[in-house]
Amino acid sequence: MQKIFKVLFIIVAMFLVIFVVASILFGLYAPKIVEEQIRQNLKVKASLGKISITPPFTITLESLEIGSLANIKKISFSPNLIALLFGKVVIHGLTILEPIINLEQSADGKLNLPVLEQKGGKPPEIYPTSLKIRDAKIIFTDKKVSAAGYQVIVNKLNISVAKVSLPVTSLATNFSLSCQLTNSAGKAFGDIVFSGWLDYLAKDMDAKLEIKDLDVTNFSPYYGNFISNKKLLSVKLNLGSTFKAKNNALNINTDFNLSNLVYEESQEQEMSLDLTKNALDLFTDSKGNLHLVFDIDTKLDNPALSQDKLKSIILKAAMKNLSNQSPEQIADKVNNIIDKFKGYGKGLKEIFGK
């Protein structure tokens, strides 16, 4: 019995010695190898502060910088050694801590994302079984809408993705995402939460999206005068959407609320015959709020939605709101819009008359 314990002790001791020596060598040479691989494949300079292995087999990378694109505090994961023997890369427990991503769109619409160089041979298949991203920040600078660079920051971004544990045969994946939006001055202007499950092979889904207290005017360079000819100084959006899909048929039910609308008063307004651009004038309630409930039916694997279709859906939902307004309120709004068009038509008549 003592001989068995002695043999086991020697085996464990040898394993520990090999593991320690391997960890030291790995820590010395692996960072340079990783940096060189990133440089060769992405064509950007990279630096890695530290790489280590902890038992049973977890690899941790610390202080990784990839050019000006990304700065990551820590990445940890556990590769499946058995899967490697079959040419597959199965990664367990992939965790990314405090990454800062700098995305920039140039004036001609190109993003600063490096293109992975494809070399000869088929690349290995990679299967992450779970993913956690903690306290991420994405800084998006758009020089297409502004030469100086219009900036929106996704802050406090947390993402969790993991396979449903039961039943064992399920291919569904649980996911959750939460973040805070801030402007270039660091002022928060909304929160987003998205969570649920998705079985992409079966084309099934059940999820919920919530947008809370989003100041829409921070996206004014993108929506322009899509829903109003008046310039909005502030408007809060609160939205709740449920995503339910079965056999690729996706239904999105949305409860849409706009409130706290403040307009710029002194601006001369461009007139338009497009009803959607007068929607805030015609369909808001007596307090100036707009509440819409509508459904979107599309495909899970191709959720295409044109601007014309979206306008149609919004107008149909807005028409339902008219039943909650008194005939006097509706008449006043319609007359106000008609008066604006009369003045617009009179101005055109004078121009062509000259």
List keywords for this structure.
13-stranded mixed sheet; 354 residues; 13 strands; 6 helices; single chain
Question: What is the fold's blueprint, element by element?
Answer:
Blueprint: H1 2-42, E1 46-54, E2 58-66, E3 70-79, H2 81-85, E4 88-105, E5 125-128, E6 130-142, E7 150-163, E8 173-183, E9 188-199, E10 204-215, H3 220-223, E11 232-246, E12 249-263, H4 279-283, E13 290-299, H5 307-321, H6 327-353
Parallel strand pairs: 4-5, 4-6
Antiparallel strand pairs: 1-2, 2-3, 3-4, 6-7, 7-8, 8-9, 9-10, 10-11, 11-12, 12-13
Q: What order do the SSEs take from the amino end to the carboxyl end, as H and E?
A: HEEEHEEEEEEEHEEHEHH
Distance between the termini: 114 Å
Reported for the largest beta sheet, the result is: 13 strands, mixed
Strand content: 35-45%
Rg, Cα atoms, Å: 28 Å
Q: Number of DSSP helices?
A: 6
| Overall pLDDT metric | 78
Give the beta-strand count: 13
* Helix and strand composition category: alpha+beta
Residue runs with pLDDT of under 50 for 5 or more positions? 9-22, 271-277, 343-354
The coarse silhouette is globular
Mind explaining what this structure looks like?
The chain is α+β, with helices and mostly antiparallel strands and 354 residues long. It has a domain at 1-67. Helices cover 27% and strands 43% of the residues. It has helices spanning 2-42, 81-85, 220-223, 279-283, 307-321, 327-353; strands at residues 46-54, 58-66, 70-79, 88-105, 125-128, 130-142, 150-163, 173-183, 188-199, 204-215, 232-246, 249-263, 290-299. Strands 1, 2, 3, 4, 5, 6, 7, 8, 9, 10, 11, 12 and 13 form a 13-stranded mixed sheet that branches. The radius of gyration is 28 Å and the shape is globular. The model is unreliable at 9-22, 271-277 and 343-354 (pLDDT under 50).
